[in-house]
Amino acid sequence: MQSNIALYLATNKRLKPTMKIVDYFGWTSLFDGIYAIDKYEDAPFSNKASMIDALIKMELIERESCVYIGDRIEDHEASLANGIEAILVKW
C-alpha cells in the first residue's frame, strides 16, 4: 500500500547500533531517513530537540503536518521545543 506519509526515525542512540537494530528487524525500507545523535560525525547533535529541528529543516517537513512519537518525557519536551505534536507511548 502506498501513501504520501514519510516516516523518519530520530533517536539519541548512536547510528551504528541503531542501524544494526533496524537492519536486524528488516525495518530499513520502512524509513525515509534515520537520524541518530551522531549522524554527522563532525557535528553531532547536542540533544534530541536540535536533532528534530535539523531533521525538519533538512527534510523540508512542515511542522504543522508532523507528529513525533516517543516513549520518554525528553521526547515530549523535544517536540514542544520544535512546535510539533507529540504522542507518548508506554511499552
Give short descriptive properties of this protein:
91 residues, alpha/beta, 33% helix, 4 strands, two-stranded parallel ribbon
Describe the protein's architecture and organization.
The chain is an alpha/beta fold. It contains three helices and four strands. It has helices spanning 15-24, 48-58, 73-81, and strands at 8-11, 33-36, 67-70, 85-88. Strand 1 (8-11), helix 1 (15-24) and strand 2 form a beta-alpha-beta unit. Helix 2 crosses helix 3 (73-81). The longest helix has 11 residues, at 48-58. The protein starts with 7 loop residues before the first strand and ends with a strand.
State the major sheet: 2 strands, parallel
Radius of gyration: 13 Å
Helix content: 25-40%
Mean pLDDT: 91
List low-confidence stretches.
Answer: none
Distance, first to last CA: 27 Å
Order of helices and strands: EHEHEHE
